[in-house]
Write a structure and sequence with these properties.
399 residues; 12-stranded mixed sheet; 12 strands; disordered N terminus
């Protein structure tokens, strides 16, 4: 009997049920997409940082420095396990021109970021390829930071020429550089990777010299205390530039994708609220339309739990179909939502934990809708058979 009534109800309220199903599907799809984005973001960051090893403390400095003073200070600081000073050659965008094999030529004069030429480090603060492997450049090759691909159409095989008053040297683009430290437009700088031989030849001959003074600790939380001690040290430690700690590097790396995820999260919450309001409207309307049938079922002895189950079965079906459809829709769109992460942090496969989290979000959304539906259907307890049969139950059900 219940199966027949359920089938008739689905047919009778087809458009109403389809609208409800649509909202449930989109809500589930957005909820799963947000879950995938956040899970993939932190997985990608953790994996990349585990290989690249960005510094826990970074002090930028332009000008001369005394490495002996830095070594003496770090050697006596508790908790530090490694430190290094990374030299960079700062150049202006107008001194770099890009030429493609087709003959198209342009310079980087309108680049919003400070540009530096660097060589690869030995074990810390590594520059990686798209598969998170340490990059090595041969003489005459250059690695282009992927962050610039948002502004310039630089392709593998293009030629980048450095020109100034003293020298002119050309490099062939051989790879794209994934930089764990400077991979966001919120950073002020970006790094091109060249070979050790080319760096030695250019160092002191072109551009300005800048240093990254980096420190690593047994616990990254020690970085803030180290920064205070570094800045207040009586030694003449170099600090003509910005100082950054590990949490800030992590936040700047994740900020763009986190903001995107938050926008989708707000949209998902809004659509979930709309879906619940739509469910409330549909369910209360059906209760009003079916008041006499409900009264008849009560009169012949059908328990209220059985009557509620008639409506709950329909909602279960709609919610199950909507959750499954939303899961499939999110899976189809996941590559679009994570495209920026792949460009910023390299390739990252969907992890089993991400899949489990996506399913858990669907189950959570399903449970939320069912609890809301049960709450609405409890209103039937306060309505008598007489009110139902006399069409006087609407006000009590509505409130």
């Amino acid at each position: 009997m219940f199966g027949k009534l359920l089938k008739n109800d689905l047919k009778k309220n087809l458009w109403r049920n389809m609208t409800l199903l649509l909202f449930m599907t989109v809500s589930a799809a957005i909820a799963v997409s947000v879950c995938v984005m956040l899970t993939q973001l932190f997985t990608s960051l953790s994996t990349m940082y585990g290989t690249a090893k960005p510094p826990h403390f970074l002090q930028m400095h332009k000008g001369e420095l005394n490495q002996a003073d830095i070594d003496a200070f770090n050697a006596g600081y508790p908790g530090i396990e490694h430190w290094q000073t990374v030299p960079m050659i700062d150049v202006y965008g107008e001194t770099l021109s890009v030429a493609s094999p087709t003959g198209h030529t342009y310079d980087l004069s309108d680049c919003r970021l400070d540009i530096s030429l660097v060589r690869q480090n030995d074990a810390y603060d590594l520059l990686l390829d798209e598969n998170r492997h340490k990059l090595e450049m041969r003489p005459g090759e250059i690695g282009v930071p992927v962050i610039l691909l948002e502004q310039y159409d630089i392709e593998i095989g293009d030629t980048i020429t450095l020109r100034n008053e003293k020298t002119e040297q050309s490099f062939q683009v051989s790879n794209y550089v994934y930089d764990a430290q400077m991979n966001s437009t919120l950073c002020s700088s970006t790094r091109f990777l060249i070979s050790d031989a080319d760096f030695t030849e250019l160092f002191g001959q072109v551009g300005e010299t800048e240093y990254l003074i980096e420190a690593y600790f047994t616990d990254s939380a020690l970085a803030s205390g180290y920064q205070t001690a570094y800045e207040q040290s009586e030694s003449n430690l170099p600090k003509d530039g910005q100082a950054v700690t590990y949490p800030m590097i992590f936040l700047l790396s994740a900020m763009t994708d986190m903001m995107m995820a938050m926008v989708f999260l707000l949209a998902g919450i809004l659509l979930s609220v709309i879906a619940l309001l739509c469910l409330r409207y549909c369910l209360l309307t059906e209760l009003e339309e079916d008041a006499k049938e409900i009264g008849t079922m009560k009169a012949i002895g059908i328990p209220e739990n059985g009557i509620q189950s008639l409506y709950l079965h329909k909602i279960r079906i709609l919610m199950a179909v909507g959750s499954f459809a939303g899961l499939l829709l999110a899976a189809c769109c996941s590559s679009f939502f994570t495209a920026h992460m792949r460009q910023t942090f390299g390739n990252q496969n969907i992890s089993p934990m991400c899949c489990l989290a996506a399913v858990a979000v669907c189950i959570l959304l399903y449970g939320l809708v069912m609890l809301f539906a049960r709450h609405l259907l409890r209103k039937l307890h306060a309505v008598t058979i007489v009110d139902l049969l006399a069409d006087k139950a609407w006000n009590r059900i509505q409130h």
